[in-house]
Structure formats: structure tokens, C-alpha cells
Specification:
Elements: H1 2-21, E1 26-34, E2 40-51, E3 55-57, H2 59-68, H3 72-93, E4 98-104, H4 105-108, H5 113-123, E5 131-136, H6 144-156, E6 160-166, H7 173-178, E7 183-186, H8 188-193, H9 198-213, E8 217-220, H10 226-234, E9 239-240, E10 249-250, H11 254-259, H12 261-267, E11 278-279, E12 283-286, H13 290-302, E13 307-310, H14 313-322, E14 323-324, E15 327-331, H15 339-348, E16 355-360, H16 361-371, E17 375-379, H17 383-393
Parallel strand pairs: 2-4, 4-5, 5-6, 6-7, 7-8, 8-9, 11-14, 12-13, 12-15, 15-16, 16-17
Antiparallel strand pairs: 1-2, 1-9, 1-10, 2-3
This protein binds guanosine-5'-monophosphate (G) and manganese (II) ion.
Residues 30, 46, 58, 102, 164-165, 188, 221-224, 242-243, 248 line the site of guanosine-5'-monophosphate.
Length: 401
């Protein structure tokens, strides 16, 4: 028996080695969706191996073989090169789109991992903000110091780092104490069961809170029904992925997916905004803190202004594209797309709107200068200051009766 298994393993290993060398592995892509705006934010690249006898082989069946036989590095490289080549044209349509690559902790802790990744991007004319890495915990962190240093370095240059399958396997709370990441992907076993099983719902709710309290985004995987989607929205989950939102599909089908995305998202009951340039004569307030949105919104409305709100840069981008505001009041630190990225995206689209940075104390002015925007309002501000700032850009409208 054992020898048969060994022979089979050896055969698989040789087949895999050949397939990688010949570039036969392909990537399928699955959408990750922002639940507030309905925007498609990332595509997870999932390796698929078309085996001549076995049909499509899933990563769970070949990544382990690759890891044990020194094939993981060439496999990762092949997937990365594929993903960059595929993503380039897609980003022309959806400029914030990133591709998510799965990386095991074992790969990440290799000494040359960040250099190799960044050099690879550079060679293909891509930049770090094209990417997110999904850390899978197929092994315990053997060398936490190196892993932490690599995560920090990659995030500092703009690569997103997310923890995959959170709550299962070896992914643990300890890692969150060790390092900052962008999001936790809540393992699908909890998401699938959340509707029926109170314990799972409690776990999902708690992980969402944990994410928000640590300044991270919560992502749910394995969304298979409308009911689950609604539960996640009610719990304040930021993003989601799953067969219901979109199954993994070959690169050749992604253009059509992007093309029809707005209608698709609307069909799911998500508010994907259409683009347009209708002038709004209103103020757009952007902050991830609901209390600030409420307060600033109330003050401005009391002073006769019309107000729209958005809770991150991505939502704000959608809002600006559908109804051009007369002024944007912009927070800097926000999940998904922060204030600086929002300004950058506006410039790329040649959209010119006056912006005032809302940020704590002296940093507000520094941010405004650095981003080259009209000015700032330092938090905490007095109501009179806020109204005075707004009236510099929009004449005070008649008070609302
Ligand atoms: O753990 P990770 O998220 O990397 O796993 C990705 C795998 O999960 C893919 O192989 C994909 O086909 C599968 N998958 C994607 N969406 C769903 C879903 O909604 N339900 C289930 N059961 N599997 C999914
Ligand atoms: Mn993943």
C-alpha cells in the first residue's frame, strides 16, 4: 500500500513539475465585493491545474506537493506573472482593482520574498497597489520576526495583506498582536452556518467587531445565498466573496464580468453607483466614523446645505462620479480607499473638485499641503469653523424652513 501511495505521490510530483515548467497551470478569478458600494474591489486568483487524466486539480491537492518538493517558488512566480498580465487591461476599466494572491506563511518567511515580489512587479510594469496577499496558515509561523518584518515592508509600499480562512487551522489571535494587516477573511464554515447556528453568527459578529476595533476590514468568504448576504450586511461586514456573488471563472470571462458589474451588483441588492456627471450643488462628507458623518452632516444641513455622506474613499469615488459635489470634506485614515488614495484616483480621472481635509489637529494642514488640496479643517472643530470653511466654497444657501 505504502509503496503504491509513494509511487503515486512521485508521479504527481513529476507531473506537477512538468506542468509548472510548461506554464500549464492557470488562474481562475473570483470577485471580492465591497458591501456598501457594491463595487468590485479585488479578484482572488485561484490556481487550477488541468491534469491530463485527473481533470481540474484543486490547490488543496497540489499546493502541499509543491511545498514539499521545492516547487512552490516557481508556482508562485507563474501565478504572479499570470495575474499581473491579466490585471493590466482590467485595471483600465476598474482602476482600484487588485488581484489577491494566496501565499503560505512558509513562503512569506523566505528571506528574499519581498524583494522577489517587488522586483517581479516592477519588471512587468505593475505597482504594489495592484496586489493583495492572502496569508494562508497551512503551517505555524516558524519565524514570526521575519514574517512580521516582511508584512510590514510590503504594506509600507502599498501591497495589501489579508489573513485568509480566519478562525480555522493555525490562523490565530496571536498573529494580530504581532502584526497589522488590512483584513481578516472570516472562514467560510462560520459564514455558511451563521443563519442557522447562533454560535456561528456570534463568532461572525465578534470577528467583524474585532476587525473594526483593530482598524481592519472584515471580509466574509463562502457567501452562497441572499439570506447570508443580508445577515452580513446587517452585521456591518465590509466585504464578501462567494458563489452567490460570483464564482471563480477563467481570465477570458472577466471582461464580461466587469462590463456587467453594475447591473449584477444591483441585482444582488447592492448599490453599485452608475457613473455620470450631474452637478449636485451639495457637500460630500467622507469619514469612516459614523458619529462624525452624523455630526458634520447635521451641522451642514442645519445651515442650509445639502449633504451626501460616504464612509470610505471608494464609496466617495462612486458618489463623486454620479453627482459632482461642490465641496468634499475628507477624512484621511479610512479603510478600503483612504483619503490620499481617493485624491490620487480623482486626479487620475481628471476630476477636479475642491477638497478640505478633516483630520486631527496639526496633521490636517500637513495632509492638505502634501496632497495639494484646497485646505483643511482640524479636528476637533467648532461648528462656526466648519460652517465658515464650507461657505468659502459654497455661498450659504437660504436656511431650510
Ligand atoms: O480558502 P480560500 O478562500 O483561498 O479558498 C478558495 C476556494 O474556495 C476556491 O477553490 C473556491 O472555488 C472555493 N469557493 C469560493 N466561493 C465559495 C463558496 O461560496 N462556497 C464554497 N463552499 N466554496 C467556495
Ligand atoms: Mn484565499
Amino acid at each position: 500500500m505504502a509503496s503504491t501511495k509513494r509511487a503515486r505521490d512521485k508521479e504527481m510530483r513529476d507531473d506537477l513539475r512538468g506542468a509548472i515548467a510548461r506554464g500549464e497551470l492557470v488562474a481562475h478569478y473570483q470577485p471580492i465585493v465591497d458591501l456598501r458600494s457594491g463595487a468590485l474591489t479585488r479578484l482572488e486568483a485561484l490556481a487550477r491545474w488541468p491534469h491530463p487524466e485527473l481533470g481540474w486539480v484543486e490547490p488543496t491537492d497540489f499546493v502541499r506537493i509543491a511545498e514539499r518538493n521545492g516547487l512552490i517558488s516557481p508556482l508562485r512566480r507563474l501565478m504572479r506573472e499570470r495575474a499581473i498580465a491579466d490585471l493590466g487591461p482590467w485595471r483600465r476599466r476598474v482602476p482600484w482593482l487588485r488581484v489577491a494572491l494566496n501565499v503560505s506563511a512558509l513562503s512569506l518567511e523566505r528571506p528574499n520574498f519581498p524583494d522577489e515580489l517587488l522586483k517581479g512587479l516592477d519588471e512587468q510594469g505593475a505597482s504594489p497597489d495592484w496586489f493583495s496577499l492572502e496569508l494562508t496558515e497551512s503551517l505555524l509561523l516558524r519565524d514570526p520576526d521575519t514574517t512580521v518584518a516582511h508584512v510590514r515592508r510590503l504594506r509600507a509600499v502599498g501591497v495589501r495583506v489579508d489573513i485568509d480562512d480566519f478562525g480555522s487551522g493555525y490562523s490565530s489571535l496571536k498573529h494580530l498582536r504581532l502584526m497589522r494587516v488590512d483584513s481578516l477573511k472570516i472562514d467560510r464554515q462560520f459564514v455558511v452556518a451563521a443563519r442557522e447556528e447562533p454560535a456561528s453568527e456570534t463568532i461572525v459578529r465578534a470577528v467583524i467587531h474585532l476587525c473594526h476595533d483593530l482598524g481592519m476590514e472584515a471580509v466574509a468568504e463562502g457567501v452562497e445565498t441572499q439570506e447570508t448576504l443580508e445577515t452580513l450586511q446587517a452585521l456591518g461586514c465590509d466585504s464578501a466573496q462567494g458563489f452567490y456573488l460570483g464564482a471563480p471563472r477563467p481570465a477570458g470571462e472577466i471582461d464580461a464580468l466587469l462590463e456587467g458589474w453594475t447591473d449584477h451588483a444591483r441585482g444582488l441588492g447592492l448599490e453599485a453607483r452608475r457613473t455620470g456627471t450631474e452637478a449636485g450643488g451639495h457637500i460630500l462628507v467622507v469619514d469612516d466614523e459614523p458619529a462624525i458623518l452624523e455630526l458634520v452632516g447635521d451641522v451642514l444641513r442645519d445651515n442650509g446645505y445639502r449633504v451626501e455622506t460616504a464612509s470610505n474613499g471608494l464609496e466617495a469615488l462612486g458618489a463623486v462620479q454620479s453627482r459632482r459635489p461642490a465641496l468634499v470634506l475628507l477624512d484621511v485614515r479610512m479603510p478600503i480607499l483612504d483619503g490620499a488614495e481617493f485624491v490620487h484616483e480623482l486626479r487620475q480621472r481628471r476630476i477636479d473638485v475642491p477638497i478640505l481635509i478633516m483630520s486631527a489637529g496639526p496633521t490636517a494642514d500637513r495632509w492638505a499641503t502634501m496632497l495639494g488640496v484646497e485646505g483643511s479643517v482640524a479636528k476637533p472643530f467648532r461648528i462656526a469653523d466648519l460652517v465658515a470653511a464650507a461657505s468659502r466654497f459654497m455661498p450659504t444657501p437660504a436656511a431650510v424652513h
